[in-house]
Amino acid sequence: MIDFNKYKALTFDCYGTLIDWENGILGALKPVLLAHNQNLNDNQILELFAQLEAEIQQGEYIKYREILKRVVEKFGEKIGFEPTNDQINSLPDSIQYWRPFPDTVEALKNLKQKFKLVIISNIDDDLFAFSAKHLEVEFDEIITAEQAKSYKPSLNNFKVAIERINLPLEEILHVAASVYHDIVAAKSLGLSTVWVNRRANRQGTGATVSAVSQPDLEVPDLKTLAALSSTKQS
C-alpha cells in the first residue's frame, strides 16, 4: 500500500483510464469493417489498432485527429479495402461521443476534494474539450500531446506536466491504464504510479501495446483508488 498523504497532485491518463476508449474505438471501427465485409473480432480490432497507432505516433508529430485518420487508412491497407472519406473521419469524429467508465466521474469528484487533478493525454486540445464535459470536474492542469508536440511514451509529455505542476516528484502520483504509454515512462522519471488494470480477467492486450513494468499500486478501477485514498488527511 502507498501512503496517499505524501501526494498533492494526481496525474491521469484520460483515454482507457477515465474514458472507455476501447468501446469507443470498436463503436467507430466495426461499422467500417462490416461495410467492407471484414469480420474481425473485438480483440483483433483492438490489437491491430494498438499496433498501428503506436507505429504512426513514433513518426514526426502530427495531430491526433490525423493519427486516427491514418489508423483507418492503415486498417484498409493491412486487410485489403479502401475506406471512404467519411469512414476515415469516423474514428476521430466519434471521440465526442466516448463516455467515461461508470466509476470515473464520482471517483474524480471525490479525489478532487483532496488532490490537484491533472490530465496528461495523447490527444488534441479540441478533442479533449468534448471529453472534459463528460468528466464533470475542473482539472488543475491539462497537458495534451498537441501542447507537448509528442506522444507518450515520450518522456517529454511527462516533463512538460511536471514543470507545469511545479511540485516535487515525490508529491505527484501518476494514474493510468496503459503500462506501455504511461507506467514505464512515469517510473523512469521517478514518479510513483498506479496501474488501473481495466482489462483484468479479459483476454488479449486490448488497444495498447503490451509492456511490462511494476507499478507502486494496482487497482481494477477508479472507485477502488478513491476508496483507498480516503485515508489521506485533508
Automatic annotation (TrEMBL):
<dbReference type="InterPro" id="IPR023214">
    <property type="entry name" value="HAD_sf"/>
</dbReference>
<dbReference type="InterPro" id="IPR006328">
    <property type="entry name" value="2-HAD"/>
</dbReference>
<dbReference type="InterPro" id="IPR051540">
    <property type="entry name" value="S-2-haloacid_dehalogenase"/>
</dbReference>
<dbReference type="Pfam" id="PF00702">
    <property type="entry name" value="Hydrolase"/>
</dbReference>
<protein>
    <submittedName>
        <fullName>Haloacid dehalogenase type II</fullName>
    </submittedName>
</protein>
<keyword id="KW-0378">Hydrolase</keyword>
<dbReference type="InterPro" id="IPR036412">
    <property type="entry name" value="HAD-like_sf"/>
</dbReference>
<dbReference type="InterPro" id="IPR006439">
    <property type="entry name" value="HAD-SF_hydro_IA"/>
</dbReference>
